[in-house]
Structures are given as C-alpha cells and as structure tokens.
Design goal:
By secondary structure, the chain is mainly beta. The chain has one domain (4-74). The chain has one helix and six strands. The chain has one helix spanning 67-74, and strands at residues 4-10, 13-18, 22-30, 33-41, 47-49, 61-62. Strands 1, 2, 3, 4, 5 and 6 form a six-stranded antiparallel sheet that branches.
Length: 77
C-alpha cells in the first residue's frame, strides 16, 4: 500500500493523504506544473498552510498528479 494517496478535489487541486497522518497537503496546478502545498493542523483544528509534517517538502514540483512520483518524492529519506 502506498504511503501517500491522491484524490482529486477539482481540475487544479488534488488532496494528498498520508496513510498514518491524514491530510498533509495538496497538489496545486500552477501554470504548467503541479506543486505540493504542505498543510498542518493545530490542536483546535486550525489550518497552517505550509506547515505540518512535510513542511520541508513544501513547493516540491511535479509534472502531473502521479501517485508513484508523489510517493517517491515525499517519502521520508
């Protein structure tokens, strides 16, 4: 089973879910590329754009919302 799963929200945004941590970010189409936008949550459910467990991977660029590529790029080293 992949560590990260993708699901489309609309034509320009895909939700990135981690198998253990839940929602960790989104892939957003910006021009001709897709960028990973990290998301974190506070104890009260407040959203922290650019935060969360994948802050260091914020703005990682992808050619397409491809689950295998996302898993390879976002997986812990």
């Amino acid at each position: 089973m992949p560590e990260f799963l993708l699901s489309p929200l609309n034509d320009g945004v895909w939700r990135v879910m981690h198998s253990q941590q839940g929602h960790v970010g989104n892939l957003k189409r910006i021009g001709s590329v897709w960028k990973f936008k990290a998301v974190g949550y506070g104890p009260g459910g407040e959203v922290f754009p650019g935060g969360g467990p994948l802050t260091e991977r914020h703005n990682t660029v992808f050619a397409a919302p491809d689950e295998a590529l996302v898993n390879a790029a976002l997986r812990s080293p």
